[in-house]
Design brief:
The complex is a heterotrimer of chains A (about 290), B (about 120) and C (about 300). With about 290 residues, chain A is an alpha/beta fold. Chain A is about 30% helix and about 25% strand. Chain A folds into two domains: about 220 residues, 3-Layer(aba) Sandwich (Rossmann fold); about 45 residues, Alpha-Beta Plaits (2-Layer Sandwich). Chain A is elongated. Chain A starts with a strand and ends with a helix. Chain B has a single domain, classed as Dinitrogenase iron-molybdenum cofactor biosynthesis domain (Nucleotidyltransferase, domain 5). Chain B is an alpha/beta fold and about 120 residues long. Chain C is built from nine helices and 13 strands. Classes of the chains: A alpha/beta (about 290), B alpha/beta (about 120), C alpha/beta (about 300). Chains B and C meet through loops of B and helix 4, helix 5 and helix 6 of C.
Chain lengths: ~290, ~120, ~300
């Protein structure tokens, strides 16, 4: 059974993707690591690692399919749809607006003549990558991606986690990079992990969002630890971060200074060339857990 | 020809509302010729303050008035998709509603033909 | 009255800071009436950037934009229809064998009503849940801020964004505002779609990294789908000139013109950490005029 760690943070741009990638790279020197990109809106890990993605599976969502020969044009399907995905005009067959559909069964259940069956629509995809550069043969990446113009990323993240559960026992560590924010797709990514690493920065915005993400992990009963990234950015705020961590019965387990070298490596997608000394304390902490 | 036109006011002298889904009013008009234009119904748009899907709800509202055409400023891709499936043409206009209707009858209005959704 | 949405795809590129200085400039230097809508309802930041205190908030409203399934236990006839196949597609219902009743997982429930429809005893009802608190504040810059905080653990961000926009529109009408300025959420999912639908202009903020460009391209695709005129701002452009060039080429290809290139400016962090309004003002006077000029001249969009 691998140790599953979610790297999250609430605030965008604190360095979640950078940290989860560095963590994965560092751990893969000794262990078998699966890095999981659960930011289905805007997956970035394959960009940061310059990894080629192979399609693993398409994420499909159930949608209704009308057998108009049975349809009596009663309009009930349109009435029960909470997402405005079915338009009913008197005297005409119902019109389906597929981008609004969330894939429930309400219309199928209510239809008095059982005229609605099931069909599928593709809403996203799951990809697998091996990292073939340098000494990263023990590191694999699995990422999710939602089709643009669709709204719900949660089903994509749930499908991603299902795929992960199929082969996670091949790995010692599973590291999940969540999206920014605190809404349903982050919740989907966090559920079931062993612990979460909340990445923050020493600014008022970082502090504010850290409280939010720690409230969320508390609600979901997930142990959480804090990583203070860009720690030397604003020393005055580091104290506030410390007190928020204490407030939530946790601690800052690692402080990584803002280093132009890290940004340059990240912005040219060369993170594997980063000196390990920068993030060694974090690796040690993870190994201890 | 029966037409629905999104309006800022309740008369044909008012301006075309540039928004369709959340337009303030939907005016239903019977127009035979530029001098035979009758306002038959004024609908206060219930979707002006609704959550997501306003465009689709207003599309349903307009379609249920048995119109052949819609005149508005802008229509979102999903509401437009509904109109396409119902074979209701959508035209773009600004300025006074009455002028827009006359222009439609004279074939001078631009028909909106938004391409389908773009996939990555 | 127009609406401008500031979006980015990638989080942390400076979207909120840039929205703040645009608002400041329009209000202070151009005397425009604006309404500021913070549509990053998961983790709203505008009130911090704009230096607001508790006393500045004058209105508070609870938002009940979602529904969740709940059981009326006395009515349950234990038929288990609700947990049978093809009823709940979200794994939100499980059967409690001891109590012999269904249990609903509120984190997974989408409020679709399928279980309520199938229940022969009408024992399952949909109850409205509070998913956010919406507040309105008067800033010291001469414009109001409409902001909302998602209840931790709840869903429905998109619906909450719509509520924020509705209130902002009401306020804009009342104040005869020229512009509603929307500070959008990161990503391209439902909260972002809710801030882009029906907007007049999108300002897409990015930074010179491969990840940000990738996310920008996804945002531009979404913007085109919603037919919104879009302009691009490259923030911290001097941190990687090669990437900046790449983004400029991309912007040209996409007909999403480059509005401005802002250098990495420490004063943004300083103004935030020290809550320095004068510094924020200086930043707005330094960078916003060129942005507005570009929007007007390149895309003939005037506020």
């Amino acid at each position: 059974m691998p140790k599953t760690i979610a790297v999250t943070g609430g605030k965008g741009g604190t360095g979640k993707s950078t940290i989860s990638t560095l963590l994965a790279i560092g751990l893969s020197k000794e262990y078998r690591v699966l890095l999981v990109d659960a930011d289905a809106d805007c997956p970035n890990l394959h960009i940061i690692l310059k990894a080629k993605r192979k399609l693993l599976s398409e994420v499909k969502q159930t949608i209704p399919k009308w057998d108009f020969s049975k349809c009596i044009k009663c309009g009930k399907c349109s009435q029960v749809c909470k997402e405005n995905a079915i338009v009913f005009v008197k005297g005409k067959y119902p019109i389906f607006v597929k981008e609004q559909c969330i894939g429930c069964n309400a219309c199928r259940i209510i239809c008095p003549t059982k005229a609605i069956g099931k069909a599928e629509q593709k809403i996203g995809a799951i990809y697998f990558s091996e990292i073939n550069s340098l000494n990263l043969s023990n590191l694999h990446l699995i990422s999710s991606e939602m089709l643009i113009t669709y709204e719900e990323t949660s089903p994509i993240v749930n499908a991603l986690k299902k795929e992960v559960s199929k082969f996670k026992d091949k790995y010692d560590f599973v590291i999940i990079d969540t999206a920014a924010g605190t809404h349903c797709n982050v919740i989907s990514a966090l559920l079931g992990v062993d612990f979460a690493l909340a990445v923050t920065e020493p600014t008022p915005l970082g502090a504010h969002d850290l409280s939010l993400i720690l409230s969320l992990t508390k609600k979901l009963n997930i142990p959480a630890f804090v990583l203070l990234n860009k720690a030397n950015m604003a020393k005055s705020k580091a104290e506030e971060i410390k007190s928020i961590a204490t407030q939530f019965n946790t601690e800052i387990v690692s402080e990584i200074p803002y280093d132009k070298k890290i940004f340059e490596a990240y912005s040219s997608a060369n993170l594997e060339k980063m000196p390990e000394s920068l993030y060694k304390p974090l690796i040690d902490f993870i190994k201890k857990k | 020809m029966r037409i629905a036109i999104s309006c800022e006011g309740k008369t044909l002298e008012s301006n075309v509302d540039p928004r369709f889904g959340r337009c303030v009013h939907l005016l239903i008009v019977e127009a035979e010729s530029p001098d035979k234009i009758n306002l038959v119904k004024v609908i206060d748009n219930p979707n002006v303050n609704v959550g997501g899907g306003a465009g689709i709800s207003t599309a349903q509202l307009a379609a249920n008035e048995n119109v052949e055409a819609i005149i508005t400023g802008n229509i979102g891709p999903r509401a437009f998709g509904v109109m396409q499936q119902l074979n209701i043409k959508v035209y773009r206009a600004t300025g006074k509603a009455i002028d827009a209707i006359k222009q439609l009858l004279e074939g001078k209005l631009e028909e909106i033909t938004i391409p389908g959704p773009m996939w990555k | 009255m127009k609406t401008i949405t500031v979006s980015s795809g990638k989080g942390g590129v400076g979207k909120s800071s840039i929205t703040a200085i645009i608002a400041l400039y329009l209000a202070r230097k151009q005397n425009k009436q604006i309404v500021y809508a913070d549509c990053d309802v998961d983790a709203p930041n505008a009130h911090i950037l704009l230096n607001l205190k508790e006393k500045d908030f004058y209105e508070k409203e609870e938002i009940f934009a979602s529904e969740k399934a709940t059981l009326i236990a006395e009515k349950c006839i234990h038929c288990r229809k609700c947990v049978s196949e093809d009823i709940c597609n979200f794994n939100a219902i499980s059967w409690n064998k001891e109590k012999n009743i269904p249990e609903f997982n509120k984190y997974l429930c989408e409020g679709c009503g399928s279980c309520s429809l199938i229940c022969p005893a009408k024992a399952i009802v949909l109850k409205k849940v509070k998913n956010a608190t919406l507040r309105i504040a008067k800033t010291s810059y001469g414009f109001p801020l409409v902001t909302a905080q998602l209840e931790i653990g709840e869903s429905g961000s998109g619906k909450i964004v719509t509520e924020v926009r509705k209130r902002a529109e009401k306020l804009a009408e009342k104040n005869k505002a020229d512009l509603i300025l929307i500070d959008g959420a990161p990503g391209i999912g439902c909260p972002v779609i809710a801030s882009i639908q029906g907007t007049d202009y999108i300002v897409a903020v990015t930074e010179p990294t491969p990840a940000a460009l990738h996310d920008l391209s996804r945002l531009i695709t979404l913007a085109k789908y919603f037919q919104a005129k879009t302009g691009i701002i490259i923030n911290k452009y001097d941190l990687n000139l090669k990437m900046t060039e790449k983004i400029e080429t991309y912007a040209k290809e996409q007909n999403a013109p480059l509005l401005a290139k802002i250098p990495y400016d420490e004063r943004f962090i300083k103004s935030l950490v020290w809550q320095d309004e004068i510094l924020l003002q200086t930043l707005s006077e330094t960078y916003v005029p060129d942005i507005l000029k570009a929007i007007k001249s390149i895309q003939s969009f005037s506020i």
